[in-house]
Amino acid sequence: MSFLASLSAQLTRFTAAVIILAAVVAMIEPASFAWVKGDTQIIVLGIIMLGMGMTLGKEDYLILAQRPLDIFIGAAAQYTIMPLVAIAIAKVFNLSPGLTLGLVLVGTCPGGVSSNIMSFLAKGDVAYSVGMTTVSTLLAPVMTPLWLMYLVGETVDMDGWAMFKFMLLVTLLPVVIGSAANMLWHNKHWFAEVRATMPGVAVLAFACIVGGVAAVHGHRFMESALVMVLAIAAHNICGYVLGFYSGALFGMSTAKKRTLSIEVGVQNAGLATGLSAKFFPANAESAVATAVACVWHSVSGTVLGNLFAWWDKRKAG
Fold first, then answer.
1. Quick one: DSSP state of residue 170?
2. Dihedral angle of Cα 171, 175, 178, 181, to the nearest 10 degrees
3. Which UniProt keyword terms apply here (predicted)?
4. Residue 317 predicted with pLDDT over 80
């Protein structure tokens, strides 16, 4: 089992490379990931959220109780900056309705499950990161459908109530089950070993989701590749910058500002990809945009975390 834990750590370290590899393989040989669709994709998403839940224990919920103001500021920044910047960038870039939907989907989803690792790399406040990811995920079944209906509800046909119920099932329920298991069995050696493998399982699950989208829609990537990547990059970078300065506005420490930057900027694009496939199956551009965002956020978040760490070493030297 220690081998699996080590493998999980390596997969987590090279998340972006694993996701890119899956996308490339899927475009070359679509049959390799064609199975990741429908109910299978929902199960894969549930596994990702279950893994996140298995990392949450009593001490994490105590953080929420002990630091309500920090958590409130973070959640407010998360669910105002990213949705509003997404629709603003869509208008600035004059994106098609499909790409606009994809970008807004990414912007209205909760923080990414890998943001905690990125905060650790950045010498940020990891406890704060876990607290923010937890709260944004718990709020997602309400906030994501509401923002989507407000921002793009007039241009796309969507069922907000169905999305709310789906997100309760796919995000909240697995997180609650995983967290309950962690609090019940956290002292058990076998559970600790299983929990140690879950980050790697989540990376592979993300790769499967991206691979599934690439298998079906990969041939459409080049149709709008440049403008799509530029829009996703601009959205992501604005999240980092505005997240950081939101922390500065409230006088937060350097560690908290870095954490807020990463938590706001890095979105759960895997969930956005799943939502796109489930609720907008005919919208190929949306699916491709959310899948590309999976890759971009994984790469940029890791790079930013390492840049923060490099800056500390440079100042110390």
1. I
2. -140
3. Membrane, Transmembrane, Transmembrane helix
4. no
Burial 7-38 (b: 16+ CB within 10 A, else e): ebeebbbebbbbbbebbebbbeebeebeebbe
**Which pTM does this prediction carry?**
0.83
Q: How many CA within 13 A on the CB side of residue 275?
A: 35
How many whole angstroms separate alpha carbon 240 and alpha carbon 234? 10
User: How many CB atoms neighbour CB 164 within 10 A?
Assistant: 16
Q: What is the pLDDT of residues 142-168, one digit of tens each?
A: 999 999 999 998 778 778 888 888 888
Half-sphere exposure of 6 (CA within 13 A, CB side): 3
User: What does the DSSP assignment read for 124-139?
Assistant: --HHHHHHHHHHHHHH
Fold of 38-309: Na+/H+ antiporter like fold (1.20.1530)
Determine how many CB atoms are found less than 10 A away from the CB of residue 162. 12
**pLDDT at 258 exceeding the cut of 80:** yes
pLDDT digits (tens, 9 = 90+) for 179-191: 899 899 988 888 8
